[in-house]
Amino acid sequence: MISDSTLNEWYPIAIANREITTVPFETTLMEQAYKVDVGPQGWVARAADGTPKQCIERYGHVWLCPGTPEKPIFNMPEADQPGRRLVDCGVVRVKCSPLRAVENFLDIAHFPFVHTDILGAEPHTEVERYKVDIREDDDEIWATKVKFFQPQAAKSAEGGVMTEYMYRVPSPMVSILYKTCPPKPGEWDVIAIFVQPLAEDLCDVWPWMALYDDASSMTDLIQFQQTIFLQDRSILENQIPRKLPLDPRMEVPTRADMTSIAYRRWLKKRGATYGAAMEVA
């Protein structure tokens, strides 16, 4: 049974650009079908039985709530900052739990081994101690003071640099990364993934970026980000168990997994268990 907390979240279902999205269109959320159209008042969604569902446009995507939203969609002010390039990176279908996709995005330790010579490289494999908080006022996870050496921190970067990160999880199937901005010191590049759960072991992942980068073409920016995520896909599709374990006895964490541990505890507390393995068999 899907919990109310899961049904009452916002989920991405399409890129909002009407030149890309055929309207009306059909989509799936958690094994349920929806028909989506756009009218004078904006986007309109209906379940298979004709029940209307709330649907909005934000961050270059169309979002749908299959239940009753308990709060507005998360705020990301960087999307409205002048000078940033907003980059929709398409969609990648992944045969894994949607929660696994988010957790993988939060993982730093795999950089040298999966994204070799781009986001990491040996012998720079140590994850320095960082800080993780669950901010009760906003009900969000934040990981701060994260630092890692990267051979190519961004498409526009030349040479390796010690990159600083912040990770944010504002809802169970959204993760946002703030990272050192090579062309504009003092600012943060923003990279996010918006995850559409199709089933408990299948999802569509929509990468999105808000960057200060006037040098790279839009095509190069999209290809760079898609290259990174496609390297992750083979790892995600071979993880066992396929669902994200919430019982701490199912997997042995390390110090580098602090954000993952916080994410799993946060999900369990919220009752957001769709795509999760709850206990040892």
Structure description:
By secondary structure, the protein is an alpha+beta fold. It has 2 domains: 1-73, N-terminal domain of TfIIb, CATH 2.20.25; 78-277, Naphthalene 1,2-dioxygenase Alpha Subunit, Chain A, domain 1. The chain has helices spanning 4-7, 98-106, 111-114, 218-236, 258-270; strands at residues 11-15, 25-29, 32-39, 42-47, 52-58, 61-65, 85-88, 92-94, 131-135, 140-150, 161-171, 174-180, 188-199, 202-211, 244-245, 276-277. A hairpin with a 2-residue loop joins strand 13 (188-199) and strand 14. It starts with a helix and ends with a strand. The mean pLDDT is 85.
Give descriptors for this structure.
single chain, 5 helices, six-stranded antiparallel beta sheet, alpha+beta, 16 strands, 2 domains, N-terminal domain of TfIIb
Quick recap:
The chain is built from 5 helices and 16 strands. The chain has 281 residues and is of the alpha+beta class.
